[in-house]
Amino acid sequence: MFSAILSFLGGSAFRMIWGEISHWLTARQEHAQEIERMRLQGELDAAAHARNLEAIKVQADLGVKTIQVQAEADMGRIDAEGFYAAAREAMKPTGVWLVDLWNGIVRPLCATIAIALWVLALKRAGWTMGAWDMELVSGVLGFFFADRSLGRRGK
């Protein structure tokens, strides 16, 4: 009889008890793994959220910068258009011949006087050009030739 009870406990009952204990251990391990997976997923989601917030911030900053650059470009364009309009208006004949003559002769007359004074100073120096004279000549030539060539290209 004792051997029958031992056989019963050693067979079916022991397997049942071991099965329940094994099931409980497996469930506990799976539960711990699920908790760890959820913790890691939460960390990944938090990191992704932080990256998304940073990307949104960068995009907003770039949008503000784009608006600032566009505003500066518009202001520059408006300034240039105003300057060109004023220059066109200044060059229009007034209809009064003395005023038109004066407007047409002021710049050439000033340039002629400046050149005459410079040539007189060169003559007194024995026709030798110093560093200041060379800088003056290169600046004047650069202004006239660059201004005209860029003006022809519409710049």
Describe the structure.
With 155 residues, the chain is mostly helical. It has a domain at 1-92. 90% of the residues lie in helices and 0% in strands. The chain has helices at 2-91, 97-124, 131-152. The longest helix is centred in the first third of the chain and has 90 residues, at 2-91. The radius of gyration is 46 Å and the shape is rod-shaped. The mean pLDDT is 82.
Q: Strand fraction band?
A: under 5%
Quaternary state, please? single chain
Low-confidence runs: none
Share of helical residues: over 70%
Topology overview:
Elements: H1 2-91, H2 97-124, H3 131-152
Relevant terms:
155 residues, mainly alpha, rod-shaped
Write a brief caption for the model:
With 155 residues, this protein is mainly α. The protein contains 3 helices and no strands.
